[in-house]
Write a structure and sequence with these properties.
30% helix; single chain; two-stranded antiparallel ribbon; globular; alpha/beta; Spore Coat Polysaccharide Biosynthesis Protein SpsA, Chain A; 7-stranded mixed sheet; 6 helices
């Protein structure tokens, strides 16, 4: 297979209403740094054979964002900027459009939630290593271990769902550039809302691969997640110091 390059898109146009904070959640601090900075530093620092893997990272922010340009990391030469859309998949597509004149059709794009600052570099390596020769791509996740209930609108349980084969989907989600762009365009043209990139790939008729990562790759959504992410980052730092 021909040599390919790797790019990333980080959708960061959300406002995080469930956090009940006075700023978008990606700018809340953990250990003295905004969540976004933790996330971008991990992506920028990811290397294989001592060479940074990602050519460029496109950060997609809201047009009225007043915080992004205050960050030192925003001036990193490997970071590009795009204006977000109304939904996540609009924002990701806008991020991909920035790469149209840079990325080859068969290049890889990693889409990663800005609110997942605990992504391990070992999990990034696992994702890239397992999928580098795959024709489509896939995503990080962890198998479901909890008992899953299906309930109606009133909270009344209808049934217990067989968890065999069920996964918690995470990011990064890694797909071929043109395939992902075409899949998101199709979903948009068909007015088919998709909640992640893998959903768009599935809707286009292809089958992504699940790659098992670590459960500490959490998405910060509510206030309690902030404390948990802080703990995970602290634990991961200690592990790095010991290695």
């Amino acid at each position: 297979m021909e040599s390919v390059r790797y790019w990333a898109v980080v959708p960061a146009a959300g406002v995080g209403r469930r956090m009940n904070a006075d700023m978008p959640k990606q700018y809340l601090d953990i250990h003295g740094k905004p969540i976004m900075v933790h996330t971008l530093e991990r992506l920028l620092g990811f290397s294989i054979d001592k060479k940074p893997l990602l050519e460029k990272i496109v950060v997609v922010v809201d047009r009225d964002d007043e915080y992004y340009h205050r960050l030192d990391v925003s001036r990193d030469p490997r970071i590009l900027l795009a204006e977000g859309g109304s939904e996540r998949y609009h924002s990701v597509l806008k991020g991909l459009e920035v790469l149209v004149d840079l990325a080859a059709p068969n290049d890889w794009v990693l889409v990663h939630d800005v609110a997942r600052p605990c992504i391990r570099r070992s999990d990034l390596g696992l994702l890239v290593g397992q999928l580098k020769d795959h024709p489509i791509g896939g995503l990080l996740g962890v198998p479901v271990t909890d008992t899953i209930k299906a309930a109606n609108a009133d909270g009344v349980v209808n049934k217990t769902v067989d968890r065999q084969g069920l996964w918690h989907a995470m990011t990064p989600q890694m797909f071929r550039f043109s395939m992902l762009r075409d899949a998101l365009k199709k979903a948009l043209d068909d007015n088919m809302p998709v909640t992640d990139e893998a959903s768009a790939i599935e809707y286009s008729g292809s089958q992504p691969v699940m790659v098992e990562g670590h459960g500490d790759n959490i998405k910060i959504t509510r206030g309690t997640d902030l404390a948990l992410a802080s703990l995970y980052i602290e634990q991961q730092s200690k592990l790095l110091e010991m290695s």
